[in-house]
Amino acid sequence: MARQHIVIVGAGFGGLAAVRGLARANVDVTLVDQRNHHLFQPLLYQVATAGLSPADIAAPIRAILRKQRNVRVVLDRVVGIDRAARQVMLAEGAPVAYDRLIVATGARHSYFGREDWAVHAPGIKTIDDATAVRRKVLLALERAEVEIDPAKRQALLTFVVIGGGPTGVEMAGAIAELARRSVSRDFRSITPHCSRVLLVEAGPRLLPAFPAILADKARVAIEQLGVTVRLGAPVTAITEDRLQVGGETIPAHSIIWAAGVQASPAAQWLDVPADGAGRVIVQPDLTIAGHPEIQVIGDTATSIDRNGCPLPGIAPVAKQQGRHAARMIVSGRSAPFCYRDYGKLATIGRHRAVIAIGGLRLSGTVAWLLWCTAHIFFLAGYRNRLIVGANWLWNYLTFERGARLITGDPTPKDGGYPWLA
Ligand SMILES: Cc1cc2nc3c(=O)[nH]c(=O)nc-3n(C[C@H](O)[C@H](O)[C@H](O)COP(=O)(O)OP(=O)(O)OC[C@H]3O[C@@H](n4cnc5c(N)ncnc54)[C@H](O)[C@@H]3O)c2cc1C
Questions:
Q1: pLDDT of residue 411
Q2: Alpha-carbon dihedral 326, 332, 337, 339, rounded to 10 degrees
Q3: How many other C-beta atoms are found inside a 10 Å radius of the C-beta of residue 103?
Q4: Which segments of 279-352 does DSSP mark as H helices, in order?
Q5: Which residues are catalytic?
Q6: N or C end of the chain: smaller count of CB under 10 Å?
């Protein structure tokens, strides 16, 4: 019998887990991704705040899969799927035929219908996003150093993060440390108390997915870092240099979006029903109705846990679904996916975190050490683990943020370089 050809689209957490799950299977695998690297998104905020360099949290897909001989990697962008012909359509290359297909193309930010905000309030999802935010934040500090108008200076030194989930909390804490502590030693006119960092959340509390007691601890910890938390405050307008929150206008040059996700257009490619965030509604075994040969996993799919609640868009869900999809192919049998929740983690600044594992609630330095250990362990490759661990130790001891490089062309939305204006 001819070997089955499995096509996997997306080399994120879900796609890579599926590929690895097929390592010993008697199949040929084609992995298609629009980028040549796998990205560890949970640490992107550290690239955006100059704590880590892009290469520390990403690894070439080909290098990761070097030893898996049954995989072929294709660098291309999927633009459609022909279910009838069982083909994946690519932007550049010829269509790729499949016997089984796993779609794991992730998600991007959602601006809840206000896509015009994206240009003024970028989110972080890719390395380019993170280095653009880093440029914006570092340029604001450079411009503030030479600005003599006090109102303009305060706007340059006001940093706003929108969204009180783990990414927003981690981002706000890291910006506070960068702007208030790390860089003030290197500037002449910026002191630790010049900068204002705001964390804005439309809901009634931070970290809605965490137990309330941990969310309260996270709030106290982040306020101690100098972040002002605004809860129950939906953003109603964002422009280049200000935003409106709950009727108040706040001048700010650096506004960062950490609220809401929109799935990749897989539901359109497959012409199947999706939820409000564009996620494909899958069967309990992660296939789509009437097509047992197609599975959709990770942030692109919406599936429910045993209590009927939608599973969160997090890396462990994507990885477990990837492994499940591979097991189904290897065994040739359908089985419902069952998520095992190993806990939730979020860090606040350089030595505090909150962790909920089953009934266990942890906060403070012990939680932070666990958070560090887990993130180092899950990074791809020994080199990245070593470098990130050493970086964190160095940062912990010195407050130094070694990746403070302004790279790329400044765009008008960055305000440009003042000396070129
Ligand atoms: C800033 C940030 C912080 C996060 N923090 C955490 C955290 O602390 N803990 C946690 O568990 N989760 C966290 N998450 C969520 C987690 O990263 C996602 O749930 C996880 O990455 C989903 O995995 P995935 O495989 O579905 O998609 P992804 O990992 O996003 O991978 C999708 C892949 O598909 C590729 N792709 C997309 N479209 C196409 C196309 N048209 N053609 C070809 N390839 C395509 C992409 O290049 C990418 O490689 C965070 C996410 C972000 C953005």
A1: 58
A2: -40
A3: 30
A4: 315-331
A5: 170
A6: N
Burial class (CB in 10 A: 0-12, 13-18, 19+), 72: middle
AA letter at 304: I
Tell me, using a 6 A CB cutoff, whether residue 161 lines ligand 1: no
CA distance 119 to 15: 30
- The predicted pLDDT at position 416 comes to 45
Question: In the predicted model, what is the mean pLDDT of the chain?
Answer: 92
Any ligand 1 atom below 6 A from CB of 169? no
Half-sphere exposure of 344 toward its Cβ, with a 13 Å CA cutoff? 18
Lookup: tokens for 248: 């108040």
- The per-residue pLDDT for 291 is 97
Q: Which residue has tokens 């999927």? A: 78
Quick: pLDDT tens for 72-120.
Answer: 999 999 999 999 999 999 999 999 999 999 999 999 999 999 999 999 9
Distance CA 219, CA 35 (A): 36
pLDDT at 39 exceeding the cut of 70:
yes
Q: Which amino acid is at 326?
A: A
Ligand 1 touching residue 315 (CB < 6 A): yes
Least confident of 22-36, 301-315, 399-413: 399-413
* Dist. CA 11 → ligand 1 center (Å): 9
Helix (H), strand (E), coil (C) string for 175-191:
HHHHHHHHCCCCCCCCC
* Contact in structure between 28 and 18 (CB atoms under 8 Å): no
Residue in 403, 420, 416 with CA at minimum distance from that of residue 130: 403
Higher-confidence position of 228 and 186:
228
Pocket test for ligand 1, best of 9, 13, 300, 372 (most atoms within 8 A of CB): 13
